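Ticket 4471: requesting a sanity check on a complex prediction with iron/sulfur cluster. Repro inputs:
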Amino acid sequence: MKKVSFVQPNFNWGPVHLDIYFLPYSAGLLWAYANQFSEVQDNYCFGEFVWRRDKISDVVERLKDCSVVGFSTYIWNRKYNYALAEELKKANPDCLIVFGGPEVPVSRKDLFALHPYMDVVILQEGEHNFYEVLKGNLECPGMIVNKNGVRVDTGVSSRFNDLTLIPSPYLTKVFDHLLVEFPNVIWNGTLESNRGCPYQCTFCDWGSLTYSKVKKYNLEQVFAEIEWFADNKTEHINLTDANYGIFPERDMMIAEKLSEQRRLKGYPKLFNTNWAKNQKQSVVDIISTLIDGGFNAGLTLSLQTSTEQVLKNIKRTNLETNKVKEVFELCDKRNIPCYTELILGLPGETLESWTDNFYDLYEAGNHTGIAVYQCQLLENAEMNVIQRKEYNLKSIQVKDYFEGGTNDYFDDIVEDNAIVVSTRDLPLEEMIKAYMIAWFHKTFHIGGITNYIARFVHKFSDESYKSFYSKFQEYIMQDPYMIDEYKRVSNSVRQWYTTGDIDAQNIGGIPVYGENMLISTVWKLHIDNKLDYIYNTIGDFVKQEYKFVFTDQLIDFQKNCTLVHEKLEQYPIKQNYDYNFYGYIVNDSLLEQPVINIYENRDNTIVPKDIFVHKIWFQRRNEYGKAKISLST
Ligand code: SF4
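Returned structure tokens:
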């Protein structure tokens, strides 16, 4: 019998002290599909899944007697996979090395000069062609074959018309041995109810280039997989549908099944997905069902930008602005946390249009969370392959973009990604300014330091967010503490954009990297015990600018909305005011009425300060660090 193994390693997906990993779903699909055929059953035995970044030399020892090894490759394991495959080929030149996944540089003519250890690269959906490879057929369409260093393309393959031909790796017990062998690992699962995406976003190398028409899995199989997740205490489910909610009835049934299982068995506990872009009512209904079922599911609207021309450039279809506003209002009414995502560095974005993104979102009613990502050039995405030249996109390979990228303890290979650091419309210096605009908004509005003050001024004084924050920014950026913070962050981002190494100092023991540096000033305010100081400065600004008779109470109200570590044992905290700021801002209540506000710690835990601060980052989607507010009756 020949042995076949699969490599789909991932990072630990959470704080270092927790062993949280995704089951290697893509690799599991390959084996579940191939192993249903007698040619495979009769000739191959299963070796192992490499699901974690174990030391390369150890893995080579384990895999060197394999006849075939399949590598599933994406941005988080590319360098590891290349290094492992190279060493494995040296240890056993007869081992057939098969690569697949969105990150293999398949458009490069010199593919096998770059990666001579690859024998076969499978394009697009891998299940059927991996089976063909196991049968020894290296000529069917959808492969690139290394024939003595010469690249041989076998043509374009067709997609699966019927996804029911692919057995579930969960239901065929492909992963059962992992659950037994690694009982202390907290496993996350990948659920796929359909495949394909009708959109063509140019930054994406998955939906846009790989598939178009959406094909569905059998609903009974999806339900059975959800039961498997619940029965096996799978903590977190990532539903990989590119547009969940696009099939309102069917997708609602999936939400109901998830909720039913969670209610019955307590699992899965967490859920995330990519929401449909144009089905506002059905998406909100589905989220309500998930929340009723016990999931802490908020809505993430991945807008990327609100700038019309940029949306055209990236071929992105979003909800129209007025509909976005309706979604926020619907979420607000149903108490559903709303999250949006922006990407910095998209083609055509200018410093001014980038800044306006934040104000557009505030005006539309999004105050709970805006994630900012640096634009990445993914290997096979249209933006990398075609638009790079047109928009003069310059990139640098950066390490430490994601937290997981540096916290693994088994290997010393650091993954990197190409981020856009300069464009035709945002040259490097402007890009740094744009990053610092994001830092300012992430600190003050999204970080929950001035959000209610800004909303109050917007409503009470009918002043635009742009006007309020332009004045506030000018004022606060003269403060010595904030000047130092600006220098600290802008120096790090300059270093990051120019050398690829952020080299930022840890804050309170928390590593600072590309993605979380934007909110590091919020942590620092906590660590340095500077919250009183900053609120005094904010109070001075409001007094100088607005001359409200109730400024002190307004500032106190906002200050109490920030959870303070030193008070963790005192929550819930009650506070009397002569004005109903919260009701006025959120529910149009009468302002001039005495109220008692109750401020609660959302998760009721008392933790050391470093963990408290770290949770502000890790649990940002649950708004950790911001008190839950209600009115006492
Ligand atoms: S980003 Fe999402 S919506 Fe756009 S092409 Fe990719 S998968 Fe589809």
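Notes from triage: The two ends are 73 Å apart (CA to CA). Leaving this open until the requester confirms.
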